Every structure is written in structure tokens, then in C-alpha cells.
């Protein structure tokens, strides 16, 4: 089979929870290494330029902090710091298997990683480094989905790949309803109007405004990232 490029540059969004693996909390390094293998394999075989946004929900969510009596903005800062931890873990995993990476944080932390500089990030990607964008948008009251949408637009990505627990968007939760059907394609507007909750609304509307398609696929199938990059995997395309 050919390795012709369907996508030249994409952003991959992983939730923080994906990094927990079988644990109930935190970072499970074997799982990070599995993702790293998947990512570096896909890069080797397609030569795609890849950037990564990882959530923080496996460590801390601003809403949970606020529910616990913390000031929301303050709690959101903590949530953003959680995404930096995840970014560093994924950097470590990717570099263990020889994939060059750079972490850029929306909250400057110069002794730990680079600050976010758009043109520099583009340059890294041109040099085939995986750029991991940490700290979301850098602002409270946002999510890493929106951070991912923002970076995908700024990096001129051709698509945002959203890795989830299931291989697309279904009419109902396929784990609870055996007759749930997977949508092959959806429009942005449909996702918003029907509140399909694959991604938060501000992220979907930014992707709509910038005409960047969203590919929803499963993280759990081996080789799934490579398949969707080649345009042959199981997924739901939102465009
Ligand atoms: N967060 C934020 N601004 C952003 C991105 C994230 O304040 O631009 C905070 C927010 O508190 C959020 C937490 O970081 O709950 C973790 O991000 P998210 O919930 O998006 O992670 P995921 O669900 O993808 O694991």
C-alpha cells in the first residue's frame, strides 16, 4: 500500500484521561509509551507533521476545584498546570523511543519548556519535531479542546484528530446501547445543534469558522492513527 499523504500537518488531541490507562488517576507511563509508539510509527510511515494537545482531566479539572470551594480562575490555572505535567510525560515517552519533541506552554515556564511562540512552533514541525502544546489556551474558563482548536488554526493544520474511547460519534453511547450507530460524516452545525458533545461547542465553532475538519477516532485500536492519517481508518468526519 502507498504512503501517499492525505494530510501534511495535523493536530492530535488526547484527553488527559487517556494517559491514565488502567489507573484511576494520574499518568500511566506504559500507556504513554504505547501512544508514543503509535505516534512515532505514524510519523515514520507517512512523514506527517504532527502536533499534540493533551488535556489535564486525569490530574485536575478547574470545575472540580470550583465545586470544592476554590476560585474558578485559580482552579483553572491548576488545571492548565496539570496539562503541562501530561505534556512533559508524553515528551519523555516520545523521546525514549527517539522521536524529537518540543513542549511549548501557553503559560511561560522557561526553565521547564519553551513558551508558546507560533512561528517557532511551525519551524519545529517543519523539522519533523512533535510539538506538544501545553497549558491549553492559557486562559481560565476554556478547555483543552478549545486550546487544540486554536492551535490547529494557528498552525494551519489540515485536520484536528480527536482520539476518544470509541471509534467515532455514535447516535447513543455504544457501550450502553447495542443498536447505537456510528455516523460516517457530520456537519459542524449538526454537532452544535444536536449537542452531540464530542468536543465542546467553542472548539467546534472555531473549527467551523476556520473550515478545519475534525476526525474522531479510537485511541485504543493499534494502528488507528496511521489508518486515519491514510484516510482508511474507522472514524467520524466532522466538516
Ligand atoms: N484549562 C483552562 N484553560 C484552557 C485549557 C484548560 O483553564 O485553555 C483548565 C481547566 O480547568 C480544565 C483543565 O485545565 O478543566 C484540564 O483541561 P481539560 O478539562 O480540557 O482536560 P481533558 O478533559 O481533555 O482531560
TrEMBL record:
Location of this chain's protein in the cell: Cytoplasm
Domain Aspartate/glutamate/uridylate kinase: 8-218
Chain sites annotated for binding UMP: 56, 76, 137-144
Chain segments annotated as coiled-coil in the UniProt record: none
EC top class named in words: transferase
Organism the protein comes from: Henriciella algicola
Described function: Catalyzes the reversible phosphorylation of UMP to UDP.
GO cellular component, one term: cytosol
Keywords in alphabetical order: ATP-binding, Cytoplasm, Kinase, Nucleotide-binding, Pyrimidine biosynthesis, Transferase
NCBIfam families with a match to the protein in the record: pyrH_bact
Location (main, coarse): cytoplasm
EC assignment: 2.7.4.22
Regulation: Inhibited by UTP.
CDD domains documented for this protein: AAK_UMPK-PyrH-Ec
Lineage: Bacteria, Pseudomonadati, Pseudomonadota, Alphaproteobacteria, Hyphomonadales
Subunit structure of this chain's protein: Homohexamer.
Sites where the protein binds ATP: 13-16, 57, 61, 164-165, 170, 173
Descriptive protein name: Uridylate kinase
GO-annotated biological processes: 'de novo' CTP biosynthetic process; UDP biosynthetic process
Pathway of action: Pyrimidine metabolism; CTP biosynthesis via de novo pathway; UDP from UMP (UMPK route): step 1/1
Reactions catalysed according to its record: UMP + ATP = UDP + ADP
Pfam families attached to this UniProt entry: AA_kinase (PF00696)
SUPFAM superfamilies: Carbamate kinase-like
Family the entry assigns: Belongs to the UMP kinase family.
